[in-house]
Amino acid sequence: MIAETGRFLVALAFALSILQLLSGWRAASIGSAPAMRIAARSAYGALAAAVIAFGLLIILFLQSDFSVAYVAGHSHVDKPLFYKIAAAWGGHEGSMLLWCVMLVGVGAALARFALRQDEQLKNRAVSIQGGLQILFLGFLAFASNPFDRLLDVPLQGADLNPILQDPALAIHPPTLYIGYVGLSAAFSLAVAGLIEGRGGRAIAAALRPWSLFAWTALTAGIALGAWWAYYELGWGGWWFWDPVENASFMPWLVAAALIHSAIATEKSGNFAGWTAFLAIMAFTMSTMGAFLVRSGVLTSVHAFALDPERGLWILGIMTILAGGGLTLFAFRSGRLGHGDGFALTSREAFIGVNNLLLAAVAGTVLFGTLYPLVMTAFGVSGVSVGAAYFNATATPFLAALLILLPIAPFLPWKKDGFSRRLALRSTLWILPGVLAGLWAFLIEASPVAIAAAAFAGWTLAGVATDLWHHRVLQGAAARFSLTGRVLAHAGVVAVALGAVADSTGRPETVRALAEGEQIEIPGFTLTLDGVRRADGPNYLADEARIVVENGRVSELLPQRRYYAAADTTTREVAIRSGLGGDLYVSLGEPRARDSGEIAYEVRVTFNPMVWLLGLGAIMIVLGGTSASIGRALSRRQKERVS
Amino acid sequence: MRARSQRLIMVAIAGVILVAAVGLALIALRDAIVLFYSPSEVAAEHPGFGERIRIGGLVEDGSVERPAEGGANFVVTDGAATIRVIYDGSLPDLFREGQGVVVEGAFIPSGDFEASTVLAKHDETYMPPEVAEALRESGVWQGEGER
Fold first, then answer.
1. Which residues are within 8 A (CB) of A414 and not within 5 positions of it... i.e. 6 or more apart?
2. How many interchain CB pairs under 8 A, A with B?
């Protein structure tokens, strides 16, 4: 019964979305208050239906109802409670339901919070969002329904892939999805603005808070994914330029460009067309990410459920979004209006260059990601593009971005702003840059790391000056915005530094060790003290006790787990974090020696200063949050004044 | 006039960045492209020593050796031809005999393939598309993308 109710609720959300589309459209066209109420209530109703459907799916998992195909495919009676719940979004169908819950949530939020002073634009946006809901709920209901029943009911479930049984994974997809789906609000508002013929400023003002929020969530989601890859997958890395990772990085880049260009558009009307274009592209890129992850057209480490039919559905949705959005853009962008114009050393000019650089990175990543597909279309199959391509193309543009970054906040809007004072100030930033470079040189870092340290010194000095110089700003709203900007900018520098530091690390050392044997890597001696059984609720495990000496003695306990239900082995890496970096140890397969001894494969790496990545990500997310708060406060002030 | 000249300058900057991006992408792509071979294609085309390539197929049953000092050697087959792979890293957890695998690396003068990366996928029911195609071509396997 529960599964049938779930099916019904998905269908109900679909039907309410149609009502939302039609009545929202009518409300915007003739300004009818009853139609507006119906549109808003349809959106709330669709949200309620989708949330309850998702709750029912969780209940099905709690009951281990294996007559439901999706539950049978992703759960098991022995699975711990927490992961039974998390499994609800651990597979394709459930994660699509979660995607739909959020999409409908955005629709309800638009109806409730967006644009109180411009109901026509708001209703149009609610209507467009209803259209997006129809596309994705249709896909859910017809091609990936999580409530489908099985004819032969298995006694045991197939279990969720054990790698996915991890706290970070339980929160990584929902966070990422808030980001992906949050960008749909920017899409709907931009499309609605183009339909209504609003000016660029009004559209930018409407979509800014939504984009900022979505971008912040996307950042958190990507960071959680990288963290998960680092400590759960045990590959020893956090970013592999895998197609699926690129699929999340591209909307991030586009959204990052959007939140900057929208500031300029709102302020002075400049880049109006570009801002609308980015808003359309950001959600299209999100959808393309979903397509790449789920269709299996590219060889990726993230093999999800691979089904060409599903791929076609998502490709169709993407075509509608990009085709419809861009056609509308082509016809209506003339109405966005021209901006006030700006001088060459104004803040707009720098934001423009920031956007061009971000677009260049997004473009090269897109090209590298899709290149194998393009070649397949020309009949050359089996081409893959290595990480070297992405490192070589993305690095120069991102470096240029970070070098120019600190200057922008000191430039005035529209006017020429390069004063002698600014020249002097930025000359002073060279000093910390030189010191940082010198420090890197003294610790015998690689030339790349020395350059990175020097540039980071320059940029961080500039960001710190930004905070100091603007400390006199009046009002909580302005202070939150400033804090947000400074935190996010410094966070990006920290991530960049962390990435460079990580790339300078030594390759891993792998050796089979019997009890009492040692591995030495520079600075550390690791001794295998013993291996014992450490079984858990639904797995068997070997746990190695490895004694680490580097002046002081500590121990690490990496595990190797076997999940019988899924017939899969995983490793739980052990990490000792320090200021210098992480000592990262994983336990591999045992092997018998001729002497009869059993040796365990132990893999050791030292990853320099990985904490910079985590710190940077946290700073960016806090920065985005702070800027969002600042934005909300200033809006409330404006409303109070008017 | 001013609006026009500022637009011109932005377009010029955009042009420079575009040219840089395209140039960089094409140069970087030349060095970063890795071609995929099935064992039969290797036998027919003889990729050179040291050339970085990917090979995919099934791990031959009973072929995996785990030397006492670490690492692993195994044979990749597509039913028609076989390649001996030497790997001194740690095999991924989903690596199995009889299942699909993709190895990246280069041939060494002994005729063995020295792998720097061994890819076995997240999901044990997943067959990399290139491997599936290679196996279909050699007639070992008739399935779709999954099995």
1. A268, A340, A341, A342, A343, A346, A348
2. 146
Mark yes or no for CB contact B123/A303 under 8 Å.
Answer: yes
Per CATH, the homologous superfamily of domain B35-137 is: Nucleic acid-binding proteins (2.40.50.140)
ipTM: 0.80
The structural domains of chain A, with segments of one domain joined by +, span 1-162, 166-338+347-364, 509-610
Distance from CA of A127 to the nearest CA of B (A): 35
Tokens of A252: 């991030």
The pTM (predicted TM-score) of the whole model is 0.91
What mean pLDDT value characterizes chain B? Answer: 79
Tens-digit pLDDT profile for residues A106-141: 999 999 987 778 889 999 999 999 999 999 999 999
* AA identity, residue B85: V
Q: How far is residue A300's CA from residue A385's CA, in Å, rounded to a whole number? A: 12
pLDDT at A161 over 90: no
Tell me how far CA of residue B55 lies from CA of A401, B38, B82, in angstroms: 38, 6, 11
Mutation site for B-interface testing, chosen from A393, A587, A598 by largest number of B Cβ within 10 Å: A393
Report yes or no: A5 at the B interface, CB cutoff 8 Å.
no
Residue A527 in this model has a pLDDT that exceeds 90 = yes
Report d(CA B59, CA B73) in Å as an integer: 10
User: For the ranges A154-163, A406-415, A548-557, A591-600, which has the lowest average pLDDT?
Assistant: A154-163
What is the model's pLDDT at position B125?
47
Interface test with B, best of A164, A364, A526, A587 (most B CBs within 10 A): A364
* Contact across the interface for B130 and A381, Cβ inside 8 Å: yes
Enumerate residues 6+ apart whose C-beta is below 8 A from A169. A86, A90, A163, A228, A232
Disruptive mutation site among B2, B5, B6, B7 for chain A (greatest number of A CBs within 10 Å): B6
Residue with tokens 């595990």: A559
CATH code matching the domain that covers A1-162, chosen among 1.10.10, 1.25.40, 3.30.200, 1.20.120: 1.20.120
pLDDT 10s digits, A319-369: 999 999 999 998 888 888 777 778 788 888 899 999 999 999 999 999 999
Q: Which of residues 70-109 of B touch A (CB under 8 A)?
A: 70-71, 88-91, 93-94, 102
Q: Which residue has tokens 């200021």?
A: A579
Judged by average pLDDT, the poorest of A67-71, A634-638, B90-94 is B90-94
